[in-house]
Amino acid sequence: MTGSPPTIADALQAVRARIADAAEACGRAPGEITLVAVSKTHPAAAVEAALAEGQLCFGENRVQEADGKFTPLRQHHPGMRLHLIGGLQTNKAEHAVRIADTIESLDRPRLADALHAAAERTGRLPRLLVQVNIGDEPQKSGIATAAADDFIAACRRRFGPALAGLMCIPPAGEDAARHFTMLAQMRARHGLELLSMGMSSDYELAIRHGATHVRIGSAIFGAR
Ligand SMILES: *Cc1c(COP(=O)(O)O)cnc(C)c1O
Asked: Phi and psi at residue 198, in whole multiples of 5°?
């Protein structure tokens, strides 16, 4: 043991191996699961280190920060994909629509209105995931579970196939499996394709419960 932290390349390879193992252990193909490397707060150099390992899909939680970091990199890496995963203010909707490939934090009717208007203005509509406040925590973003079915159906009518799935962050310190199961059932009820759940501490469990996207930050890039 040298005590030095693993490089981003090493950490990324380890996470990929664990994703593949978790998938195979439950009879899923590793290719069914997309790793979203969450680079928020880390510099562009960290993103470049991951790109050098062939990582193309990244997650950021602030529109401004994402734009500053990704717009220059994209010129050299046209295959890069940006997922916006943070709470989104309506006044940032147009900026988000311009730069994101996927917005994972659609969580209220006013934001749906703002994204719809922004899509009409820009002619661009990213893929959208509804964020569900699966533990109904007062401080957390996401649509309340009791309102989720109606909201998902309304978004599906409005956005068509661009409304592609669901996202959640289960309550810390609680049984995540129960919450992952609930989100998977909701996804099935609505016939949606994508299920974004699982972070550094619980992504293998999320894969067992059907995650198609895992959002992993600190296990790749280190502590924030
Ligand atoms: C920061 C963040 C992550 C990544 O969290 P880690 O624990 O660092 O893997 C995933 N999802 C969302 C919504 C986040 O804000």
From this structure: 110, 125
Structure confidence by residue, pLDDT tens digits, 85-118: 999 999 999 999 999 999 999 999 999 999 999 9
Contact 162, 127 (CB under 8 A): yes
Q: How far does the centroid of ligand 1 lie from the alpha carbon of residue 146, in Å?
A: 24
Mutate to test the pocket of ligand 1, among 34, 133, 215 (most ligand atoms within 8 A of CB): 215
Instruction: Answer yes or no: is pLDDT of 5 > 90.
Output: no
Residue that is written with structure tokens 């499996």 in the block: 177
Please state the atom number of ligand 1 nearest to the C-alpha of residue 215.
10
Q: How confident is the model at residue 6 (pLDDT cuts 50, 70, 90)?
A: confident
Rounded Cα–Cα distance for residues 97 and 111 (Å)? 12
Give φ, ψ of 133 to 5 degrees: -80, 80
- The domain defined by 8-221 carries CATH number 2.20.25.90: no
Query: What mean pLDDT comes out for the span 191-198?
Result: 98
List the domain boundaries for the chain: 8-221
